[in-house]
């Protein structure tokens, strides 16, 4: 590929967004950053990754934020994590071609050129079954887990971007993997990127 490019993938839980990101990264031989961002931020901050994991892509409770000084190091962990990931996403995108999964990366890179923003979604039952098979979620709680994680991601995106997660206006391409399958979604993205950035 001649030109540097960045792909951001927002995804409903169980829709295959993470898998799509990894497969694209393997095809283009570029890095894919998903939970790897947590490891990088934790190392930079001197915390262990597990400390940040429970706050990853979780909305900040508005009441818990009251009274904090924006310019201080005393911000809530959620907010510290968002800001550190936001800055790291911008830094990495300015250096090389790469892929980001989640973490409002399309918002972090809204002023960047050569960014292709994708939203991956799917039928609820398709996603519930994938959560069981791919993420080892117990069947009896699979429906509630899918709903809970989707709700958290939507709230997180709304809080930090003041926009709506999944709104087609925020993405260049929205793909339904329950309709087309993951293989076809990957093929379509590859086709677009190769035509635009070669």
Task: Describe this structure as you would to a colleague.
The chain is an alpha/beta fold. It has one domain (6-197): Rossmann fold, CATH 3.40.50.300. The chain is 55% helix and 12% strand. It contains ten helices and five strands, in the order βαβααααβαβααβαα. The chain has helices at 17-28, 36-45, 49-53, 62-65, 77-95, 105-108, 124-135, 139-161, 177-180, 182-197; strands at 6-11, 32-33, 98-101, 115-121, 173-176. A five-stranded parallel sheet has the order 2-3-1-4-5, with helices on both faces. Helix 1 crosses helix 10 (182-197) and helix 7 (124-135) packs across helix 8 (139-161). The protein is globular. It starts with 5 loop residues before the first strand and ends with a helix. The model is unreliable at 62-72 (pLDDT under 50).
Provide tags for this entry.
55% helix, 198 residues, Rossmann fold, alpha/beta
């Amino acid at each position: 590929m001649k030109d540097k490019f960045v792909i951001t993938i927002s995804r409903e839980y169980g829709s295959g967004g993470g898998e799509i990101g990894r497969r694209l990264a393997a095809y283009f031989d570029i890095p894919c950053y998903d939970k790897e961002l947590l490891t990088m931020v934790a190392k930079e901050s001197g915390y262990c990754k597990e400390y940040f994991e429970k706050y990853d892509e979780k909305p900040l409770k508005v009441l818990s934020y009251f009274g904090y000084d924006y310019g201080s190091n005393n911000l809530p962990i959620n907010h510290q994590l968002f800001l550190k990931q936001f800055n790291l996403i911008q830094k990495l995108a300015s250096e090389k071609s790469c892929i980001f999964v989640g973490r409002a990366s399309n918002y972090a890179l809204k002023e960047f050129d050569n960014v292709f923003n994708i939203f991956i979604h799917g039928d609820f039952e398709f996603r519930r079954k994938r959560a069981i098979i791919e993420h080892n979620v117990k069947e009896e709680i699979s429906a509630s887990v899918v709903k809970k994680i989707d709700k958290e991601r939507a709230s997180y995106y709304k809080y930090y971007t003041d926009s709506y997660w999944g709104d087609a206006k925020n993405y260049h391409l929205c793909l339904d993997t329950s309709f087309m399958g993951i293989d076809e979604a990957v093929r379509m993205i590859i086709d677009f990127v190769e035509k635009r950035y070669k």
